[in-house]
Known about the structure:
Layout lengths: L2 H13 L2 H8 L3 H15 L4 E4 L2 E4 L1 H28 L4 E7 H4 L3 H11 L4 E7 L1 H9 L5 E4 L8 E16 L6 E2 L1 H4 L4 E4 L4 H12 L9 E5 L2 H9 L5 E4 L4 H5 L3 E3 L1 E2 L4 E10 L6 H12 L6
Parallel strand pairs: 3-4, 3-5, 7-12, 8-9
Antiparallel strand pairs: 1-2, 5-13, 6-10, 6-11, 6-13
Helix pairs in contact: 1-2, 1-3, 1-4, 2-3
Amino acid sequence: MNLEYLKSFYITVKCNSISKAAKNLHLTQPGLSMQLQNLEKELGVNLLIRSNKGVKLTEEGKVVFDYAHTLLSIQGNIERDLKNLQQDKPKLIMGSCKSVGEYALPCSIYTFKQLHNEVEIHMEVNNSTEVIEKLRKHTINIGIIQFDPKVDDIITQTIVSDELILVGTCCDSPKQISIEELKKIPLILREKNSGTRYLIEKALQKKGIDIKELNVIYDLNSPEAIKSSILAGKGFSFLPKLVIQQELKEHWIQQVIVDDLTIPFDYYVASRKKYTFSQYEQMFVDFIVSSKRGFC
Length: 296
């Protein structure tokens, strides 16, 4: 498949206009149209429906567009990694779940950087599911995640154990509740597809409870935003101990024990199964895994 034609197709869809895409690609409109026709001919399908309002993807076009995004990302990453090899400074490109990436991991990165000042470190913070997808798309090479996906193309190493605990404001939160009472209190949860949400759902399923039975008042995609909501007395939430150590110590929030419900879990270093770490990537992974606490 001609990647130049694939890129022209991808940019055309993003621009929703052949004329705008041609300008973006520094091509004439007839030249771009010829590339699109050649790609359709090569694949044996129609990819676009053209009209005065722009372009619209056919069903076949939707499939090709999704793959185009991945293939072009991989192409860009290949060029980036080859360029990095030619540069003096080695680089670490990683992604982390928010429970670690917004709290403990920056300290570990700082410590590693003090030991290896020659390394450039780039980190993206997303939820665990998004980190796994970025590994698959070769956007990052090291992932720190909150659960083991147990899939064939991703391998994991355990870093450290943690636990999700239910917490509320110290002002009027009960110290202990039953499973039935858990269903009634106002809950603020992490977004769907996050590692925290996955662990909660899995633990509840073992008790025969569907998460829909809970009184979830809203979802947030940030542990920090959830903590702010709890401190404002808006509700309760399950958060990793690692995330709320300071708040518990200062008695700003307190743990609420739920009878017969514990949610232990591990943090993992994740990578693509067929990927071989560079020297400094392996050094960083060893640094994280061998640390007594996993993080600073």
